[in-house]
Design goal:
Number of helices: 11
Largest sheet: 5 strands, parallel
Bound molecules: ligand 9D3
Helix content: 40-55%
Strand order of the largest sheet: 2-1-6-5-8
Distance between the termini: 64 Å
Radius of gyration: 24 Å
Length: 253
């Protein structure tokens, strides 16, 4: 997987190299990251790449020319066929796991980080294949969203995580939340199923807790799941045990 990131803060984005599994994959060149600063390509004589918006209003707008020339440089740097140009912008499509998977599958993308009030619309019309947002909150630029997308896509790239099973088993891939985890010491309140050594029982407990957590915390995800009979039964059990009177004498005998 290769990412080209167009950003006014390349050193910031390059910090990815120093942390975690994504950092390791970059250092071992199982993942490629190149950063491109529009200031180095077609800035005005005064070094600026932005200007005041026509019609007035607060803030500044990134100009077409520096961004266009930066994309030109990106293209010339690799002889590969065109890779998608994705703009990080607050009015983009919402980024999610499906987006991460499609990026990982395409194998390459150019991520353009917006700043200020945004980028000149003519750049978007001419060069941008899709705009992506990470949620309904206002950030000061697209760099953190770009780093987030790289992290999410990278971990779906073969060889980035040590153990391929950990990607496959990730609950979001399944569209639901995960069960709780425990580790030593096994003092108190560790669910007995987890200490039983009975793998079928552990798997059943985890699935039930995962479905229960999704029911409690993300009912919107549950609506999208087609639960088979076994899963429906496990969730019904969880819901029954969750009810406030479960295991108590409610006095109506
Ligand atoms: C005047 C309207 N503002 C839009 C809400 C202008 C504006 C604010 C912040 C334009 C750009 C930005 C900088 N944000 C991003 O570049 C950005 C972003 C975000 O702010 N939230 C969620 N996802 C993203 S992706 C890029």
């Amino acid at each position: 997987m290769r990412f080209d990131v167009v950003t006014l803060f390349p050193e910031w984005v390059q910090q990815l190299e120093h942390y975690g599994v994504v950092g390791r994959a970059l250092r071992e060149e199982r993942l490629e990251l190149a950063t491109w600063n529009p200031r180095d390509y077609g800035a005005r004589d005064d070094g600026r790449v932005d200007d005041r918006p026509f019609g007035g209003g607060p803030g500044m707008v990134l100009q077409v020319e520096p961004l266009a020339q930066t994309l030109e440089a990106v293209e010339q740097s690799h002889g590969q066929p065109q890779q998608p140009v994705i703009l990080l912008a607050p009015d983009g499509e919402r980024f999610n796991q499906a987006w991460a998977a499609s990026l990982a599958e395409r194998g390459a993308a150019t991520l353009v980080c917006g700043r200020y009030q945004g980028v000149d619309q003519r750049f978007i019309d001419r060069y941008v294949d899709a705009s992506v947002s990470i949620g309904d909150f206002v950030l000061s630029g697209g760099e953190l969203p770009a780093m987030m997308m790289i992290d999410a896509a990278a971990r779906l790239t073969p060889g980035v995580l040590g153990d391929p099973a950990s990607t496959a088993a990730e609950s979001f891939t399944e569209g639901r939340l995960d069960a709780p985890y425990y580790t030593r010491p096994a003092t108190e309140h560790v669910p007995s199923a987890l200490l039983s050594g009975d793998h079928a029982r552990i798997a059943r407990w985890r699935l039930k807790q995962a479905l229960g957590a999704t029911w409690l915390k993300r009912p919107d995800l549950l609506d999208q799941l087609a639960l088979d009979a076994e899963k429906q039964r496990l969730l019904a059990e969880f819901i029954h045990e969750y009810s406030p009177n479960h295991g108590k004498d409610c006095g109506d005998a």
